[in-house]
Write a structure and sequence with these properties.
Layout lengths: L3 H19 L10 H20 L5 E5 L6 E5 L5 E2 L12 H4 L8 H25 L17 H22 L13 H13 L10 H21 L7 E2 L10 E6 L2 E7 L5 E3 L2 E4 L1
Antiparallel strand pairs: 1-2, 2-3, 4-5, 5-6, 6-7, 7-8
């Protein structure tokens, strides 16, 4: 049975791979050609249908010279007779162009979300369970009865100050002022689950359940981005038969899409069954 501690260790193992994925733009050719062509045809029909009703979003006016009905397009400010028209060159979306994104947005969002969740969880638990840092010895005020008493008192202060410094620098102590670090937070939480020595009280059952829930959710997101989870996904677009298209892949498997209605099957090479 996979435990919360296992999930946390797996997160630390996969973290370098997630960071690499953040700087790798998604150049996959998925969906495969057959499915992609089908979706593009649907998009074309949607655009043509929207263009057919374009005149319904026009502002009615009169031509200043002829007095004939005149229309101004709300979308692109084209002025004309209200029929279909091409956008003004300076308002055409194609003019803006699509620029390649130099990072994987999905991987970046996952990194930020997981890092914030683990850091927040560790901070919350440390506020409740972590013992305060030992205070150093107070300066001596007054006189000593003898030289021997003075030496003993100084040795006690030195010993107390050394213990206070050691306690403050304990690597198992959570730092509240540190920047979010997913690996450090995961290892600190793992150490608390395993009961390793630390200036902290033992975790309660509720805290253990909370760590388990957050760790499982974080790992699921990471595995999803890294294509390590074999979880079917449904496309928003239906098949031409009206059925739901399910995409299967991940965990090293060859990605494919299958219609739950007509049974059509697509892979990266195209339609292999219809």
């Amino acid at each position: 049975m996979t435990t919360a501690a296992d999930h946390l260790i797996t997160i630390t193992t996969l973290w370098p791979e997630l960071l690499d994925a953040c700087t790798t733009p998604n150049t996959s050719t998925w969906p495969p050609a057959g499915l992609r062509d089908h979706l593009q045809r649907l998009d074309t029909l949607d655009r043509e249908e929207a263009a057919g009703y374009h005149h319904q979003r026009l502002i009615h006016s009169r031509h200043p010279d002829t007095g004939q009905p005149w229309y101004e397009c709300v979308d692109c400010n084209h002025v004309g007779d209200g029929h279909r028209h091409t956008p003004r060159p300076d308002r055409d979306p194609a003019q803006l162009g699509e620029r390649p994104i130099l990072i994987s947005v999905r991987a970046h969002d996952t990194r930020v979300a997981v890092e914030a969740a683990l850091h927040h969880l560790a901070t919350d638990i440390a506020k409740t369970n972590q013992r305060p840092i030992m205070s150093p010895a107070r300066p001596h005020r007054g006189f000593y009865a003898s030289e021997r008493e003075r030496r003993i008192a100084e040795q006690d202060r030195e010993r107390r100050n050394a213990q206070a410094r050691e306690d403050a620098e304990d690597p198992q102590r959570w730092r509240f002022d540190g920047r979010p670090d997913a690996v450090r937070a995961a290892l600190w939480l793992w150490s608390r689950l395993e009961g390793h020595r630390a200036p902290c009280d033992p975790l309660g059952d509720g805290q253990r359940q909370r760590i388990g829930k957050v760790a499982a959710g974080a790992l699921a997101r990471i595995e999803g981005v890294l294509d390590r989870a074999d979880v079917p996904q449904q496309l928003a677009r239906p098949c031409q038969c009206g059925g739901i298209i399910e995409v299967h892949g991940g965990a090293g498997a060859t990605p494919c899409a299958r219609c739950t209605g007509c049974g059509a099957l697509w892979t990266e090479t195209g339609v292999i069954a219809a």
